[in-house]
């Protein structure tokens, strides 16, 4: 039987409240069913009992309100054990009892009375000894409309503007607390109410926070119109807003040099074309996704210059992705630099074996750089069957040729991934956006934690149902979204056959010549036959190299040289604090030892333009 010493005032008209240890509540009463007698002798006929465990917010609010009544305050203090309880202030008592209510050692028992004395505004029960409702200060019965607004990873939406409409017609609007809670108290009728939420500042999603919170009220995060939910009075109602999930292609190869707007390889093993091919492949395999290219800049410089540079980076990526040659050449002419060309020439030399090593990357054009440019122009003419001027000068024709080489590599990546070359589906009208330096280190994007990581583009794959659009601002999208990294698709060519005839620089057949074939997936050894022919069937992987003595035959893209006399590389020279790798070729062979184009390989035995369908590796 509830003890009168544990009764508290929670509203008098037909409603009483008791704090009881959970083990003292009979099973039938705890479920809201069963007879109240003999557990509650003298309970009015037709009375209803409800047993509740409270949230901390609700417990503190109820206890503070009850403490305003002297009898209830005395009963509350009596529930707190300890020799110094008489010296405790109101907040100490409330906090301790709230801990017990939230922990479950105490529960709230509410008795709702109904009968002849019931009137819409409340019920005044007969006087009973110990009633907290005795006296002229008795309070009218009331309830509360309370909501908690959180994101699906548990982060509270503190500061969100919440409008509450009670069933009795009362309304209240204000910011949510730091726990995301808002309430409308002193409501004099139970029933359904309404909560309208306008999200404010949103805590960013943190890498690894994959917990999904469940609730009876779950909505997709709205970037525009407010969210409205029907909620009932009484207990706290939790409203969960789902973060939109956005896929982001792994960005290690999508970086830019300082002040550069051209997307070119910054490292021998970090070409951007695999990342671009990965984005196109993902788009074709997921029809609801749309692509958004977001440019970023470091925090150096003014906001306006950073924003312009970031946009040019996004536009350059788009030009390369969709084959906008003239636009790329204009951008490179207006905003490129000799250092950008040097980086691209060095990449072609080290990865694709073109004779274009510029020896350094410092933006200075001298005889060595001009020679590398001339070598590029000459090789481009031969491989692409073109006739650009070979003069060592980087003009519009040469910039167009540099674009062609990158596009050809991208097409080769798409072929390897079995992806058709189609225009992307854009998330916005242009598919590009600039974040400038506004989106700095982001906990959901590990590659963006360092300052150099801001000189990049993000390839974002966004479902078309996401409500974000450009007027809402990129900062908001990065704050709200849950990012998922898409790894760059490995380049796979499948199995291929290698058939090559070995000859020396005089055209003599090299019969019985030992060789090694090396790909990125396997390595084989053998000797050529009596006609100098090497036949390797069913090779796995790409970037095949056939090593025979001092010669290395590179079998990869059609624009590669098929044979090249390698020069010994000397150690890098010390050039101060420059982080770029500086290399120089050793002394070239004597003039009569150099390979002529006609002597490298017999055209009948190996043709750069062989069709892959013939079963032989290009």
How are the SSEs ordered, and which strands pair?
Blueprint: E1 7-8, E2 15-21, H1 27-30, E3 48-52, H2 56-67, H3 70-79, H4 90-103, E4 106-112, E5 143-151, E6 161-165, E7 171-175, E8 181-187, E9 192-198, E10 217-220, E11 227-232, E12 237-242, E13 245-249, H5 273-285, E14 289-295, H6 303-322, H7 325-335, H8 338-352, H9 367-384, H10 396-416, E15 432-434, E16 457-463, H11 474-480, E17 482-486, E18 496-501, E19 514-518, E20 523-527, E21 533-539, E22 544-548, E23 551-555, E24 564-565, H12 597-600
Parallel strand pairs: 5-12, 10-12, 13-17, 14-15
Antiparallel strand pairs: 1-2, 2-4, 3-4, 5-8, 6-7, 6-9, 9-11, 13-16, 14-16, 18-21, 19-20, 19-22, 22-23, 23-24
Description:
This is Peptidoglycan-binding protein. InterPro entries: OmpA-like_sf (IPR036737), Peptidoglycan-bd-like (IPR002477), PGBD-like_sf (IPR036365), PGBDSf (IPR036366). The protein is 24% helix and 21% strand. It has 618 residues and is of the alpha+beta class. It has four domains: 109 residues, no CATH class; 101 residues, Immunoglobulins (Immunoglobulin-like); 240 residues, no CATH class; 119 residues, no CATH class. α2 runs antiparallel to α4, α3 crosses α4 and α7 crosses α10. The C terminus is likely disordered.
């Amino acid at each position: 039987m509830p003890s009168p010493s544990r009764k508290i005032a929670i509203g008098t008209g037909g409603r009483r409240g008791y704090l009881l240890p959970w083990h003292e509540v009979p099973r039938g009463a705890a479920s809201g069913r069963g007879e109240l007698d003999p557990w509650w002798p003298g309970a009015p006929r037709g009375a209803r009992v409800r047993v509740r465990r409270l949230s901390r917010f609700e417990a503190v609010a109820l206890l503070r309100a009850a403490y305003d009544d002297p009898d209830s305050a005395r009963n509350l203090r009596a529930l707190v054990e300890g020799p110094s309880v008489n010296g405790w202030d109101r907040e100490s008592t409330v906090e301790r009892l709230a801990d017990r209510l939230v922990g479950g050692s105490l529960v709230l028992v509410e008795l709702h009375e109904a009968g002849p004395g019931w009137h819409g505004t409340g019920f005044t029960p007969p006087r009973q000894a110990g009633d907290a409702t005795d006296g002229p200060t008795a309070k009218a019965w009331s309830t509360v409309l309370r909501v908690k607004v959180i994101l699906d990873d548990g982060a509270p939406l503190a500061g969100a503007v919440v409008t509450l409409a009670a069933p009795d017609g009362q309304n209240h609007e204000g910011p949510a607390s730091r726990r995301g809670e808002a309430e409308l108290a002193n409501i004099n009728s139970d029933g359904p109410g309404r909560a309208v939420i306008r999200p404010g500042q949103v805590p960013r999603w943190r890498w690894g926070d994959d917990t999904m919170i469940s609730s009876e009220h779950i909505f997709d995060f709205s970037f525009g119109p407010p969210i409205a939910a029907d909620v009932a009075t009484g207990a706290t109602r939790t409203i969960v807003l789902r973060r939109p999930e956005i896929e982001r292609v792994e960005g290690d190869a999508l970086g830019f040099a300082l002040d550069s707007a051209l997307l070119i390889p910054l490292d021998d093993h970090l070409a951007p074309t695999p990342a671009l091919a990965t984005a196109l492949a993902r788009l074709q395999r997921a029809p609801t996704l749309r692509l958004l290219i977001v440019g970023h800049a470091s925090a150096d410089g003014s906001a306006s210059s950073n924003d312009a540079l970031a946009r040019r980076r996004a536009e350059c990526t788009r030009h390369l992705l969709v084959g906008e040659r003239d636009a790329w050449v204009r951008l490179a002419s207006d905003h490129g630099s000799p250092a950008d060309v040097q980086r691209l020439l060095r990449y072609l030399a080290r990865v694709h074996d073109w004779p274009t090593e510029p020896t350094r990357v410092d933006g200075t054009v001298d005889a060595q750089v001009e020679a590398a440019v001339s070598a590029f122009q000459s090789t481009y003419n031969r491989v692409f069957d073109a006739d650009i001027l070979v003069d060592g000068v980087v003009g519009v024709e040469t910039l167009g040729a540099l674009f062609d080489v990158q596009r050809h590599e991208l097409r080769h990546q798409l072929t390897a991934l079995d992806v058709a070359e189609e225009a992307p589906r854009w998330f916005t009208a242009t598919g590009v956006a600039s974040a400038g330096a506004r989106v700095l280190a982001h906990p959901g994007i590990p590659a963006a934690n360092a300052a150099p990581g801001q000189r990049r583009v993000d390839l974002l794959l966004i479902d078309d149902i996401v409500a974000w659009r450009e007027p809402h601002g990129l900062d908001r999208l990065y704050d709200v979204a849950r990012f998922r990294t898409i790894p760059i698709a490995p380049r796979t060519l499948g199995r291929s056959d290698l058939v090559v005839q070995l000859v020396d620089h005089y055209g003599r057949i090299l019969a019985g010549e030992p060789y090694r074939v090396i790909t990125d997936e396997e390595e084989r050894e053998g000797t050529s036959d009596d006609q100098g022919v090497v036949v390797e069937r069913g090779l796995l992987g790409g970037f095949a190299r056939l090593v025979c003595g001092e010669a290395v035959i590179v079998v990869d893209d059609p624009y590669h040289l098929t044979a090249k006399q390698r020069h010994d590389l000397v150690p890098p020279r010390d050039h101060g604090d420059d982080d770029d790798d500086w290399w120089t070729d050793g002394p070239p062979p004597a003039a009569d030892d150099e390979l002529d184009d006609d002597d490298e390989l017999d055209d009948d035995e190996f043709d750069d333009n062989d069709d892959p369908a013939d079963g032989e590796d290009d």
